[in-house]
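Researcher: Next entry in the queue.
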Amino acid sequence: MMQEKIDTSPQLSQETKDQVLLIDLENCPSQISMLLKDLAQFSQVVICYAQSGAKIPLDWLMPLTNMVNSQKLKIVKMPNGGKNAADFGICFLSGMLMAQCSPKTHFVIMSDDADLDHTVKLLKSYHRTAERISLKKEEVPTIIENTKK
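Model: Structure for this entry, 149 residues:
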């Protein structure tokens, strides 16, 4: 799948700041297959979901346990399901993390839901760098020519 960056901010090198990834698992369930790679790339990964049938390989159990214990990985199940439950969780958690993390921390929200751009804009209004990454494939418009004359 092609990853399309949306609402990007100037990129800073990883040496100059931490990066936090917040995953909307309801909206991007395939991102679970990238979890180990994400954990290597980001200083912290937060997965937010309300209902999910996501499955992980058994071989990942020990590495993920270590990541959860070291608080590098947080898995947050919303107390109630429903429309936008995970989105509200990501909004709330990004605000909490903004207060806890270094001012140089860059926030990445992985979601196809453009409504989370409001969260990105709020983070930026507090002088943070943030972006939303969508996994949706870019739709190419189809042109149908009229063959009848």
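Model: The longest strand covers residues 19-24.
Researcher: Noted, moving on.
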